[in-house]
């Protein structure tokens, strides 16, 4: 993959850049394949790029706009180079649900087919950057204005959704490169089999620890926690403040400190959004002997495989609760 963490260029209208790029590609009947015949795919983050790579194998060349773990998809500002990547793509893949709103804006002027992950969760077309209010996954009281029917846009932690994305990718890639359709279907089947193994591992966690209490520094891995039948005891005010990047109320911070020092069986930390408030929670948990499980929003540096990345996080959660 290429390093495509780019910022917008001051004084340049992204919409104007897009219009020029689309015009330049207009005579190509869609974006052209690479010189070696591989399908050109652009994904919003390296999480979905890794799923594309698993399904497409040697027949795709996939680029992710966000690869750097320090880049935040919620606030990412796309630039001219990002627009160029999207304009030359044959297939576009993004999360949706308000998570990576920069990407559908880039995709507006492209005729390339799209795969939007939240579509696999909600069973209806993704509505661009529009927000919808829904209830949170069971056991989580934080209200979030984006996402699918469960109200949380972090659907790459929802394993059946990821399997659905793989199947959809196989179908789209098969349309673009019909002679390799069977390869894509077989790759998706192999990927889904690995997902099923992860689901089985999560079910094992549920069998051993259903009802165990966890506190999270941010509502990131809620689908995983819900599937493991764990109870999220994070105070609403704490989760809301961290996710919206506002100051954590003193009372919520104190309550969280009390929970991780006694009531919680484990603390789940998003290492990509560490703040003084969350680090205090982690420090208190470790002082109290409460296990801390690290999770991330994108694949960490050095990892390119979704299954191994998610499997490591499931293993870490299981190990923490087994202690």
TrEMBL record:
<dbReference type="GO" id="GO:0030313">
    <property type="term" value="C:cell envelope"/>
</dbReference>
<keyword id="KW-0479">Metal-binding</keyword>
<dbReference type="InterPro" id="IPR006127">
    <property type="entry name" value="ZnuA-like"/>
</dbReference>
<keyword id="KW-0813">Transport</keyword>
<dbReference type="InterPro" id="IPR050492">
    <property type="entry name" value="Bact_metal-bind_prot9"/>
</dbReference>
<dbReference type="GO" id="GO:0030001">
    <property type="term" value="P:metal ion transport"/>
</dbReference>
<protein>
    <submittedName>
        <fullName>ABC-type metal ion transport system, periplasmic component/surface adhesin</fullName>
    </submittedName>
</protein>
<keyword id="KW-0732">Signal</keyword>
<dbReference type="GO" id="GO:0046872">
    <property type="term" value="F:metal ion binding"/>
</dbReference>
<feature type="region of interest" description="Disordered">
    <location>
        <begin position="120"/>
        <end position="150"/>
    </location>
</feature>
<dbReference type="Pfam" id="PF01297">
    <property type="entry name" value="ZnuA"/>
</dbReference>
<feature type="compositionally biased region" description="Basic and acidic residues">
    <location>
        <begin position="124"/>
        <end position="150"/>
    </location>
</feature>
């Amino acid at each position: 993959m290429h390093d495509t963490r780019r910022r917008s260029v001051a004084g340049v209208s992204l919409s104007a850049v897009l219009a020029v790029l689309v015009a330049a590609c207009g005579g190509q009947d869609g974006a052209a394949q690479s010189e070696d015949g591989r399908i050109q795919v652009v994904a919003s983050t390296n999480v979905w790029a890794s799923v594309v790579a698993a399904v497409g194998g040697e027949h795709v060349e996939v680029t992710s706009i966000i690869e750097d773990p320090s880049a935040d998809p919620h606030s990412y500002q796309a630039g001219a180079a990002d627009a160029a990547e999207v304009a030359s793509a044959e297939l576009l893949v993004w999360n949706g649900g308000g998570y990576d709103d920069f990407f559908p804006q880039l995709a507006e002027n492209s005729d390339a087919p799209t795969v939007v992950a939240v579509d696999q969760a909600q069973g209806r077309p993704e509505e661009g950057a529009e927000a919808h209010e829904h209830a949170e996954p069971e056991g989580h009281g934080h209200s979030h204005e984006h996402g699918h029917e469960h109200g949380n846009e972090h659907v790459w932690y929802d394993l059946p959704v990821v399997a659905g994305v793989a199947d959809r990718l196989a179908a789209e890639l098969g349309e673009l490169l019909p002679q390799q359709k069977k390869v894509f279907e077989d790759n998706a089947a192999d990927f889904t089999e690995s997902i099923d193994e992860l689901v089985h591992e999560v079910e094992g966690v549920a069998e051993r620890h259903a009802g165990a209490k966890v506190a999270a520094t941010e509502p990131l891995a809620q689908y995983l926690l819900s599937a493991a039948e764990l109870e999220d005891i994070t105070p609403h005010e704490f989760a809301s403040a961290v996710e919206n990047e506002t100051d954590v109320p003193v009372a919520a911070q104190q309550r969280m400190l009390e929970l991780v020092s006694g009531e919680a069986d484990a603390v789940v930390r998003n290492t990509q959004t560490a703040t003084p408030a969350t680090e205090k929670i982690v420090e208190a948990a470790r002082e109290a002997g409460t296990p801390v499980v690290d999770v991330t929003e994108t694949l960490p540096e050095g990892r390119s495989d979704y299954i191994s990345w998610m499997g490591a996080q499931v293993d870490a959660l299981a190990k923490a609760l087994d202690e």
